[in-house]
Design a protein that fits this description.
- The protein is mainly α and 185 residues long.
- The protein is 71% helix and 0% strand.
- α1 (3-23) crosses α2 and α5 (81-94) packs antiparallel against α9.
């Protein structure tokens, strides 16, 4: 990797970190590009080299995390939901600042919506309504119900409504999913 590439990555990381730090203190609508520039210790022009505006910046950060969750799910295929949930929650814990900021922010509902859509996309592969405990249920209703429950559980853990340790929450979510889902054959 050349020096230019490293500087570019370093600038982008500083910009992303600055936005998240600002979001933990201010409402997203109140954050200006100058605020981000000052916090990241980069010029505004540098920010505009990488992002159209603060919305594009936030969108790219969100998509990076959604894509990483996708990669985690792909690498965990074949595992039980209980084991896969532990990997997912490990990622949540390592990226606590991002997830807690996104899930606590009332103005930035786009993350929650994208996260829910991603979870429902993953559930489509695992919901079987032709046999077992879900036989005869409407697949769309079940996917929406489970997706909302999963996102709500994750959100409750980040907002500290759930005070259980991360491994307990992850394991119990996995057990619940193992009981109610199976890969559609």
């Amino acid at each position: 990797m050349s020096k230019v590439d490293r500087r570019k990555l370093k600038s982008q990381e500083a910009i992303k970190t600055a936005l998240l730090a600002l979001m933990s203190k201010k409402k997203f609508d109140q954050i200006t590009m100058q605020d981000i520039s000052d916090k990241a210790n980069v010029g505004r022009r540098t920010i505009y080299l990488h992002y159209l505006d603060k919305f594009d910046l936030l969108d790219q950060i969100v998509m990076e995390h959604i894509n990483e969750l996708r990669n985690i799910c792909e690498s965990a295929s074949g595992m039980s939901f209980a084991d896969g949930s532990l990997i997912w929650f490990d990622y949540f814990e390592r990226n606590y600042d991002f997830f807690s900021t996104m899930l606590r922010s009332k103005e930035v509902n786009s993350y929650r919506t994208r996260f829910l859509e991603y979870v429902k996309e993953r559930l489509i592969r695992c919901v079987n309504v032709s046999r077992g405990v879900n036989e005869g249920l409407n697949k769309e209703v079940l996917i929406h119900f489970l997706g909302t429950a999963i996102v709500g559980l994750v959100e409750s853990w980040f907002t500290e409504e759930l005070k259980e340790p991360v491994d307990v929450v992850a394991k119990q979510l996995g057990i619940l999913l193992d009981r109610n889902l199976e890969l559609d054959q």
